[in-house]
Structures are given as structure tokens and as C-alpha cells.
Amino acid sequence: MKYKQFNKRFLLFLACSCLFVLFATAQEVTVNNLAVLKPGSNISFEIDFSKCSIMGMNENDFSKYERDWFKDKPVIIVKFQKGINSKLDGILNVGSFASSPYILKVTVKSISEVGNLFCDAVMTDKSGKVLFRVKNVNGGNEPPFLPGTKLAKIKIWANLTGRALGSILKSEYLDQ
Q1: Residue-level pLDDT at 15
Q2: Is there a domain that residue 15 lies in?
Q3: Is the pLDDT of residue 93 over 60?
Q4: CA pair distance 50, 6, nearest whole angstrom
Q5: What is the CB neighbour count within 10 angstroms for residue 11?
Q6: Does the residue 18 lie in any domain?
Q7: Is 3 helix (H, G, I), strand (E, B) or coil?
Q8: Contact assessment for residue 56 and residue 48, using Cβ atoms and an 8 Å cutoff
Q9: What pLDDT, on the 0 to 100 scale, is given for residue 33?
Q10: pLDDT per position as a tens digit, 106-147
């Protein structure tokens, strides 16, 4: 009898924990008109770290702590971009396309102690009309400990967060 009570409580605890995680990491997606994008469209990509809290520090302070931050920042951006494209499967292409009429701008709000990037993204056309917006994108559930340097962790999570954004963008594009 005691075993069944424990089992029920444990299952209830697991269910509540799962719901908490889902609500805590829920993304808010707004799609206005992705149908204007043709399959294979090139989308210019920008990422902004200027207002980002990196492991509790602003970007300047973090660069003093991790001296290679500005050297590795372009690598982090490429990993994020490759993460997006790995999920888009060529349906759309995100990159450095200066002549593209579409821009995907990612604003990194914070980077956690294990390196996970938390960000918002908005896609606009050249006139500034919002086609797609998503808030609270991140790379997923964080392990309590991840070995490696802080920059190595950020590079891993940049790819994972890019993949999460790519999955959302692909899903919303295919739903149009």
C-alpha cells in the first residue's frame, strides 16, 4: 500500500515538474506573413549582444574576464547561424546576404552560467514590416554542470539555440 502511495506521489511530482519546465521555457511566436518567402529564399542574419547579460556580466566586463570573447564572438555567431540552417534543410537560407529583402535579427538577452543563450528574434522585410517574431528562444534544458571553458560552453549552446530557432522558423513557415 505504501509503495502505491509513493508511486502516485512520484508520478504527480514528475507531471508537475514537466509542466513547470514547459511553461518556464515557452516561446511566444507571432507570425504575420511568412508566405511572402519563396522556398530557398535568402535571409540576411544579424545578431546583437549589446544589451546581453553574459553569466551575470555586461559584454565589456565579460570580455575582461574572458579575454578571447571578441576574438571568438564571430565563431559563436557562425555556430548560431549554422544551427539555424541545419534545421531549415535548405527551405530557407540564413546568412550574410546584403541584397536580401528579408532580415532575421536575433537579440541575445542573456547567457546563463552554463552558456545557454536566451534570445528574441524578429524577421522583417526591408521596409520594416514584421513577418515573424519569437520571444524566449533558448537551447533547451540545461545540465547542472557542463565541463569546459565558458567560451566553449557558449559555442555549444549557440549552436543548440540556433537549432531551436531554426526548428521554430521551419515549423511556422511550413504551416503557412
Answers
A1: 39
A2: no
A3: yes
A4: 49
A5: 10
A6: no
A7: helix
A8: no
A9: 83
A10: 999 999 999 999 999 999 999 999 999 999 999 998 877 777
- Provide the residue range defining the domain that includes 51: 27-175
Query: Does the residue 9 lie in any domain?
Result: no
pLDDT at 83: 97
CATH code where residue 39 lies? 3.30.160
Closest to 66 in 3D by CA, of 55, 77, 80: 55
Whether the predicted pLDDT of 91 surpasses 60: yes
Task: Evaluate whether 114 touches 142 at the Cβ level (below 8 Å).
Answer: yes
In a domain, 2, yes or no: no
**Amino acid code (one letter) for 94:** V
At residue 64's C-alpha, the angle toward residues 58 and 66, to 5°, is 95
Here the cell at position 85 is: 540552417
pTM for the full predicted model? 0.82
Q: Are 44 and 97 in contact, with CB atoms under 8 Å apart?
A: yes
Record the cell numbers describing residue 124, joined without a space. 522583417
Question: CA neighbours within 13 Å on the CB side: how many for 8?
Answer: 5
What is the count of structural domains for the chain? Answer: 1
